[in-house]
Structures are given as C-alpha cells and as structure tokens.
Please model this.
Amino acid sequence: MSIYSQSDIRKMTTAEGIVTADCQFCGAHYEFEPKTLGFEASETR
Model:
C-alpha cells in the first residue's frame, strides 16, 4: 500500500470508511482501517 498516493487511497476508501484493494497477482481482496495506513478517510478531498 506504500506505493499509493493519498489521492489513490481516497479512491480505494469505501463509503463505510474502509480501504479496499485487490491483488492483481492472486486475486485476493483486502480491507484495511485507514488509520493503519497512516491516512484518515475523513480528510478533506
């Protein structure tokens, strides 16, 4: 996730405030709390 910009992280954040990502290699779906990524989903867009 460290390769993504703050703008990218915002786009991956759902309405519920969870960051989602899908692995293009294995197809796994991941969900993260924004705080664990050093990003607050409620920041100004």
Q: What stands out?
A: The chain has a mean pLDDT of 82. Residues 6-37 form one domain. The chain has one domain: 6-37.
